[in-house]
Write a structure and sequence with these properties.
The complex is a heterodimer of chains A (about 775) and B (about 160). Chain A has about 775 residues and is α+β, with helices and mostly antiparallel strands. Chain A has 19 helices and 28 strands. Chain A has a seven-stranded mixed β-sheet with strand order 3-5-1-12-9-10-11, with helices on both faces. Chain A has a five-stranded mixed β-sheet with strand order 7-15-14-13-8. A four-stranded mixed β-sheet of chain A has the order 18-26-27-28, sandwiched between helices. In chain A, β10, α6 and β11 (about 240-245) form a beta-alpha-beta unit. The longest helix of chain A has 28 residues, at about 550-575. Chain A starts with 17 loop residues before the first helix and ends with a helix. Helices cover about 35% and strands about 15% of the residues of chain B. Chain B contains five helices and five strands. In chain B, α2 crosses α5 (about 140-160). Chain B starts with a strand and ends with a helix. The chains are: A alpha+beta (about 775), B alpha+beta (about 160). Chains A and B meet through α1 and α17 of A and α1, α2, α3, α4 and α5 of B.
Chain lengths: ~775, ~160
């Protein structure tokens, strides 16, 4: 047990949530059971693009256990809304169940309900849908061409939006006067998130009170409730409760409101019986929002001293067949503003075409726009170094933004004002840890022996905790970006904390309890964290964009200030001392210079509730609520270095070492932060080497199972070597920045650069990801010709 | 048509009439009500459903309940004895071998068999033996550390 005087902030404390998980007593959505439960299965379009001419349900109704079937004609609810608008954006209607036409393979066409999950699947299989297949298009650039299959009659050339950032004229001028221009055209391939827990939902409707309860695998239960109540189901928010209990990973994919939870909620209300649906993995592949999928042309201009003078970017971003909840945000404001990285780039111009295609919707996936920007920049830096005949690390060092922490902000040409940063030490340390200089010598010797080894470097900057709400609103956000916290002190001094952020693996129950216990000087055992239930928590924006600690944590912290303020007034009253003469330490208020005159935390809490002797006019009780709206994003940064060896005979890439030096500001629990960095790295390595949500040209998903979509396994990965520099964020009271996505952002270009470095001697300058054995082998073979 | 099955799970006898097509994992979760065993995929890749059947780690999504007739099984709920965590469970807790917890029951039971076969496994052996279990949160780093911790502690306990 932590003693009252021990600092808990910054300590690697074992997680409090673990005992239930390691003994099989977690409570995930699929574990919830209710009396009279029915089960749903979905009929999905097997075609990427097809007109629905008729649906015959006769055979389905004859399946034993059948309860009901509803199609797009029956489910009369609002469309699934898109929560971020860009100028002149076209938002085609996205029905809960396909209406007249299916626009991607896997789109739900009907919901079938039966008294067992097996019967529901039998009945769904027995539904006969008469489709008229139409030509489909999966590639965002091809979808833009004249004559490409049109998804919607009123969306010309399938273009949902055209968005730019930066100064076009200044950038053109920079390129005209450049001493050297380096260009790179590439695909940032589509990824499929694959949280190990498939999405699930269970809805129950109490007709006596008109209360709808939805258990759903959500990263943001209040957002689910708001969008579903206000925009889709049209019921009062007060009549809907959303519970997201233990959730088995999200990585972005569980932010969004999906067809299934709406159809299930509507069906539960209509039937008057609880309905549950749990995705099969194949359904997750087909209908969970995917990530990335950019086709990009990028160019960088340099002066005679190899200093960057400009960056020009054209990206076709694949949005899928419909706009998912936050889809437009990802390839715009979470992408363009990141294009300066940690480099001094005087002018940038970026154009993005947001394209509709016959594929599953694309939205935020771990990193969300920031990995795409970082990959672009860091691959371009590597290619530039080769063309400029400079060492890649040296070119980066030369172009870094100089340290400015404590000084004025650094204004990039793409909107962001970095508020703190000292980028060189992280790069230097990562290179040292990886023995970069020695590796270069070793590489020379290896080359002479015919061995292909390479080392890759990537720096990165991230923008976490998107904020503030007013700015987001002016840029098209349909939501605020603040977070709520509520701290309730009980008469015994025990504390319940209600947070609007949500843990689906991040360990909030530990981290936030640490934060509160540390600040109040009470044992962690007296602090309970509650999240994931709209009936208990005032409101919340949930967990995405590495925001839980910096925004959610800060909201809690602000409550503690209010609590301590009231506590001090009670203590001063009891001690007959002036408030100014009291100090709060180790869980008690004492008179400065007279430590024996003190009131302990528990005594003050009890008195707040007894109210027998509190200052005149003071309300009894001890609790506080805060809504914290940050004034800016936070900006974590760092440098990663990896080394690889390639088997020239098979093209197989072996990861030798992985070094990460990150700056995520102050760290509440280093064990948890390290864990997130590890997992992030693995996901980014997955993109670099194996993962590909590949569609055929006409829109069939070719990687729709875990057999075909290569998720990283234990045997393919090494131990990661992690260190940190600490530059506290000046934005929030905790000085924290966010650590959930750093690994994913940096590791993809690090690995790609390492592989290309290993092949550079053969003259290979680029291979599109994933750098599978086959692709690498083909590049080696082509280079040797 | 339903068929009778009888099995012992975590020391308790269960007998039911089940559809021949009922997957073992659904029998365990839905019929017996032990929800610690999870389903993460349909194709035997992820290993979230791993249990011990007659001492072997098996993927319970790849067996029918009727194939397990007469078997003796351990699920994650049966690993701790009298409230004392098994060293592998303890190792996962000590070394932060889990984040969202969903793959964890399968990982722990896969590790159980791994350590029976290789009481002093090298890092390489651990990584190779875990290839049938997917984790999307940890990057496997701390899972490997957790199993190393368990191996060391189990070896020390035998001395």
């Amino acid at each position: 047990m932590a003693t009252a005087t021990e600092r808990l902030f910054g300590k690697a404390i074992k997680r409090r949530e673990d005992p239930r998980f390691i003994t099989g007593r977690g409570q995930y959505v699929d574990d919830v059971k209710l009396p009279g439960l029915t089960y749903a299965a979905f009929v999905r379009s097997p075609h990427a693009h097809a007109r629905i001419k008729g649906i015959n349900v006769t055979r389905a109704k004859a399946v034993p256990g059948f309860v009901a079937i509803y199609t797009g004609q029956d489910v009369k609810v609002g469309n699934l809304p898109c929560g971020w608008m860009l100028p002149d954006i076209k938002v085609p209607p996205r029905p809960v169940l396909a209406q007249g036409k299916a626009r991607y393979a896997g789109e739900p066409v009907a919901i079938v309900i039966a008294d067992s999950a097996y019967a529901a699947k039998d009945a769904a299989e027995a539904v006969q849908v008469d489709y008229e297949p139409l030509p489909g298009v999966a590639n965002p650039k091809k979808a833009h061409q004249r004559g490409a299959p049109a998804l919607f009659d009123d969306v010309a050339q399938n273009q949902s939006f055209y968005w730019t950032i930066g100064d076009k004229n200044a950038t053109e001028a920079a390129f005209r006067s450049a001493a050297k221009v380096v260009s790179l055209s590439f695909v940032n391939q589509r990824l499929i998130p694959n949280a190990i827990e498939p999405r699930a939902c269970l809805a129950s409707y109490a007709s006596a009170t008109s209360d709808l309860t939805l258990w759903v695998t959500s990263q943001n239960p209040h957002v689910h409730r708001l969008l579903m109540a206000a925009f889709i189901l049209g019921i009062p928010e007060t009549k809907m409760r959303v519970v997201s209990p233990d959730v088995g990973g999200g990585f972005g994919s569980k932010i969004f409101v999906y067809n299934e939870e709406v159809a299930v909620s509507w069906a539960a209300k209509t039937l008057g019986r609880p309905v549950k649906w749990t995705a099969e993995r194949r359904e997750s592949f087909l209908n969970d929002a995917h990530g990335r999928d950019h086709v990009t042309d990028a160019e960088m201009a340099f002066d005679r001293d190899s200093r960057i003078t400009g960056l020009r970017v054209k990206t076709h971003a694949n949005l899928g067949a419909y706009l998912s909840t936050f889809a437009p945000l990802i390839p715009s404001y979470l992408y363009g503003p990141l294009l300066s990285g940690v480099y001094k780039i005087p002018t940038i111009f970026c154009e993005v075409w947001g394209m509709l295609t016959n594929t599953a919707p694309v939205d935020a996936y771990r990193g969300a726009g920031r990995p795409e920007a970082t990959y672009l920049l860091e691959r371009l830096m590597d290619r530039s170094a080769r063309e400029l005949r400079l060492d890649p690390a040296e070119l980066r060092r030369k172009n870094l933004i100089p340290a400015f922490t404590g000084g004025p902000v650094y204004q990039t040409p793409v909107a962001f004002a970095y508020d703190s940063g000292n980028y060189e030490p992280a790069l230097k340390r990562a290179l040292e840890m990886a023995h970069y200089t020695e590796f270069r010598k070793e590489q020379e010797q290896a080359r002479q022996q015919g061995r292909l080894i390479g080392i890759g470097v990537s720096t990165y900057i991230e923008a976490c905790g998107p904020a503030p709400s007013a700015v987001a609103g002016s840029l098209g956000a349909g939501a605020g970006l603040w977070e709520s916290g509520q701290v309730r002190v009980h008469p015994t001094g025990a504390v319940t904390v209600f947070t609007g952020s949500h843990s689906h693996g991040q360990g909030h129950e530990t981290t936030f309890a640490q934060l509160v216990a540390d600040d109040l000087g009470i044992p962690m055992e007296q602090v309970e964290i509650v999240h994931g239930d709209t009936a208990q928590i005032p409101f919340g924006m949930g967990t995405y964009g590495s925001r839980s600690a910096c925004v959610g944590g800060s909201a809690i912290y602000k409550c503690l200030d209010k609590i301590k303020d009231k506590g001090r007034r009670i203590a001063a009253h009891l001690l007959e001392a002036s408030e100014q003469d009291l100090e709060f330490q180790a869980g008690k208020w004492s008179v400065k210079g007279a430590p024996d005159r003190a009131k302990a935390w528990g005594e003050v809490a009890l008195m707040a509730y007894l109210a027998h002797n509190i200052p005149q006019g003071m309300e009894p009780g001890l609790e506080a609520t805060s809504f914290y709206d940050p004034s800016n994003f936070t900006f974590p940064f760092g440098a990663h270095v990896a080394s690889v060896e390639i088997d020239p005979e098979t093209g197989r890439v072996k990861l030798l070492r992985y070094v990460a030096v990150d700056d995520v500001g102050r760290v509440i629990n280093p064990m948890i932060v390290d864990g997130m960095v590890h997992g992030g790295i693995a996901q980014g390595v997955g993109q670099a080497l194996w993962e590909h949500g590949l569609y055929s040209d006409d829109g069939q998903l070719l990687a729709a199972t875990m057999m075909d979509y290569a998720l990283p396994t234990a045997g393919q990965l090494p131990f990661y070597e992690t260190e940190r520099t600490v530059t506290p964020s000046p934005v929030n009271p905790l000085g924290v920045k966010g650590a959930g996505e750093t690994g994913t952002i940096a590791s993809t270009p690090t690995i790609a650069n390492a592989v290309i470095d290993a092949l550079a001697g053969l003259g290979v300058t680029h291979i599109d990801m994933p750098l599978t054995a086959e692709r690498v082998w083909a590049a080696v073979k082509a280079a040797k010709k | 048509m339903k068929l009778p099955v009888k099995m012992t799970i975590n020391g308790q006898q269960h007998s039911h009439e089940v559809e021949p097509r009922l997957l073992l994992v659904h029998y365990i979760r839905e019929v017996v009500g032990l929800t610690g065993t999870h389903v993460g995929c349909d194709t035997s890749q992820c290993g979230a459903c791993t249990i011990l059947m007659n001492g072997m780690a098996v993927k319970s999504c790849t067996l029918f309940a009727v194939q397990a007739d007469g078997a003796t099984m351990t699920t994650i709920e049966g690993l701790a004895k009298n409230g004392d965590l098994h060293p592998i469970q303890q190792g996962f807790w000590e070394k932060h071998g889990l984040q969202c917890g969903f793959c964890t029951p399968g990982m722990i039971l896969a590790a159980y068999q791994l350590l029976e076969r290789y009481p002093k496994p090298s890092e390489e052996v651990i990584r190779h033996q875990l290839e049938g279990n997917l984790c999307r949160c940890t990057g496997y780093h701390n899972i490997v550390k957790a199993i190393q911790w368990a191996a060391d502690n189990m070896a020390a306990a035998k001395k």
